[in-house]
Write a structure and sequence with these properties.
globular, six-stranded antiparallel sheet, 19 strands, about 375 residues, nine-stranded mixed sheet, alpha/beta, disordered N terminus
């Protein structure tokens, strides 16, 4: 990793000075300086103090200036927030004039490496092997996933893991504002287009006809690109309606949202859609086109480490005019092996006759 670059920021390794070992360490996900203390967070959500003397006033000034110049953004009392990103990093700095604790920064890492491995997930108790096999078989069957949970539970990382079981020939389009998915880098032989959305007007465009590539426009554009899958990093607002409309055409996808119960996913989507003229139809569409809901949580362990796990999993189904949610996992425990008829039929059509069986060594789905 010689340098971190994209259109937003270009920094060489020297720019990170004494922080470089932490930047290069794949086990570390966040490097935070609060004006006094330097904190490191690892992949197990263990947070420890590092030697604060590493961040000297001179280094802090030079580092922030380099970031500021790289993105051509002022950082001063009139512009107290500095944000920059690379293909693998997100850097945020806050000026000392708007804090009582001094100049602070956060470096969040999203490297193009798979942090989740099936064998390790099972060993660590993320979920039972048969549940992980079921989820992988759902990917192979081409179902739509919504992964929910609080910030920091690893929603995007688990979505990245699941997307690794998509067929190489199926065109995948990722849509995100901060590069985290890295699908094209993780699976270079696969068919992929990565779209980066922008919230501001494109530079140089005329105000009268400028096009903002926001999430909604990105989803609509995707439909003209012949996708098999659309990966939306997070559904936050009105783009949820466009995503459902996209899924209604037969395109499949994975997205993440913030909610604390899989049974709340339909209500969360309705809240994001807002002002729908036909609320009943939209509710029906949610149960029609969202197949699977997954809730991730973090459990604090006695040794100070944290364990991520699947707390809930359910199938959504609309059949015979009725909307239903079938809980398969609750409180981390499997409840039911029988699948809704519509889900079982989808798997049978895809050639998956043993939904709870998957050979993670050979990558073969469950067959009798």
């Amino acid at each position: 990793m010689d340098e971190f670059r994209n259109r937003s920021v270009l920094l060489d390794n020297e720019s990170f000075g004494p922080l470089l070992p932490f930047i290069l360490d794949d086990r570390i996900t966040d490097v935070d300086y609060n004006g006094t203390d330097l904190w490191l967070t690892d992949v197990n959500k263990v947070k420890v103090k590092a030697e604060a003397s590493l961040v000297t006033p001179k280094f802090l000034e030079v580092f922030i200036n380099k970031v500021s110049m790289a993105v051509e953004q002022q950082f001063n009392p009139a512009n107290p927030i500095l944000e920059a990103e690379s293909d693998e990093l997100r850097i945020t700095a806050v000026h000392e004039t708007v804090t009582t604790t001094g100049r602070a920064f956060c470096i969040r890492k999203a490297p193009a490496v798979p942090r989740y491995d099936a064998k390790e997930l099972i060993r660590q108790g993320y979920c039972r092997q048969e549940i992980l096999a079921l989820l992988v078989n759902c990917v192979r069957t081409k179902m739509n996933f919504v992964i929910c949970g609080d910030t920091g539970v690893g929603k995007t990382e688990f979505a990245k893991f699941l997307s690794g079981y998509i067929r190489a020939q199926d065109k995948v389009i990722t849509i995100e504002d901060n590069p985290e998915w890295h699908y094209a880098e993780l699976y270079p032989g696969n068919d992929c287009i990565a779209i980066k959305v922008k919230k501001e007007r494109q530079k140089g465009a005329q105000r009268s006809n400028a096009t903002t590539m926001d999430y909604t426009n990105a989803i609509k554009t995707c439909l003209r690109l012949n996708p098999s899958w659309i990966m939306l990093s997070e559904a936050r607002s009105k783009e949820a309606k466009s995503l459902l409309e996209c899924w209604s055409t037969g395109v499949k996808g994975i997205t993440t949202i913030h909610t604390d119960n899989v049974l709340k996913i339909p209500d969360r989507f309705m809240n994001m859609i807002q002002n729908s003229l036909d609320a009943d139809r939209m509710v029906n569409d949610i149960y029609d086109f969202i197949d699977i809901g997954i809730l991730l949580r973090i459990k604090e362990m006695a040794d100070g480490k944290s364990r991520r796990y699947i707390d809930q999993m359910c199938f959504f189904d609309r059949e015979n005019g009725q909307n239903r949610a079938y809980l398969i996992v609750s409180d981390g425990q499997a409840l039911e092996r029988a699948l809704p008829d519509s889900i079982a039929k989808k798997m049978e059509r895809a050639g998956v006759t043993e939904p709870y069986v998957f050979d993670f060594k050979t990558g073969r789905a469950g067959h009798a």
